[in-house]
Amino acid sequence: MSGNKPVVIKKVKKVIGGGHHGGAWKVAYADFVTAMMAFFLLMWLINTTSPEQKRGIADYFAPASVSRSSQGSDGLLGGTAFQEDGARASGSNRQIDEELSETRRTKSGAGTDGEATAANEPSEEALAQALANRKDAATRSAETSLRQALQAMPDFAELSKHVIVDQTPEGIRIQLIDQDNRAMFSGSSADPLPRTEHLLETVAKVVSQLPNRITIAGHTDSTPPGRSGYSNWDLSADRANASRRILEKAGLDADRIYQVSGKGDREPLYPDDPDLPANRRLSIVLLDEAPVMPEDHGL
């Protein structure tokens, strides 16, 4: 009977390989599709936005700490911006020019918006007042820097009695005055004493860093010089010219000097006491000139 048993053959199917690997490829494909969609969306936005909208987006993402002003750095005249163009321009001209250009762009408008924008433009008086305010601010800043520089002189305590810094309609004025028993010039001559030369050299170092043009005027008291044919007019003019030579020798550009004059005893510092020694003085004025307007500044 044993020989009649059926033969059973068992087939085992072996699977070699990975089989199903999950959905990792789907994630990669989805990332690729998303990136392509974002790319084409960006291209569409760039094509449909106006230049003004692009500038607005750029300004929104610009760092808040970035400044486009032309302010100076720390130092003797830190915080005061002056152009390197010379003595005939105010320190705030570049910024004023930019604002005027922006005003003109806004006024011109785009398409039919120009007429609506023109109604909102500032008046000529308002613009002039804005320019005047900026000029006054620059002048005050220059005066503060000048005072600080003079006070930083090692022997300023001794020489401070000879110096007066004030504002005039013409600009910042530096007056070097005589004191009792402490004259700036030898007798009734135009020969400066050593302390006068030192003071003028210090003034030259300070004003050389400012852009303004300069006037120099000599003044005397009412006492005649005591020399035949030589008046207070001659003496004041000679002292002013001698001071000019010292300033130029100390480094002041000769092109910065706009005027040298002698006023004699016609403009006393103390009109009620014309013989007072303080009436003998030098006046150095940094001219307060108006900012240079662009040629096409019409409103």
How does this structure look, described?
The protein has 299 residues and is of the alpha+beta class. The protein has 8 helices and 5 strands; from the N terminus they run H-H-H-H-H-H-E-E-H-E-H-E-E. The longest helix has 28 residues. It is rod-shaped. The chain has a 5-stranded mixed beta sheet. Strand 1 and strand 2 form a beta hairpin. Among the domains are: 50 residues; 144 residues, 60s Ribosomal Protein L30, Chain: A, CATH 3.30.1330.60.
Helix content: 40-55%
Our estimate of the beta-strand percent is 5-15%
Give me the count of strands: 5
Name the average pLDDT: 74
- CATH homolog superfamily of the domain at 144-287: OmpA-like domain
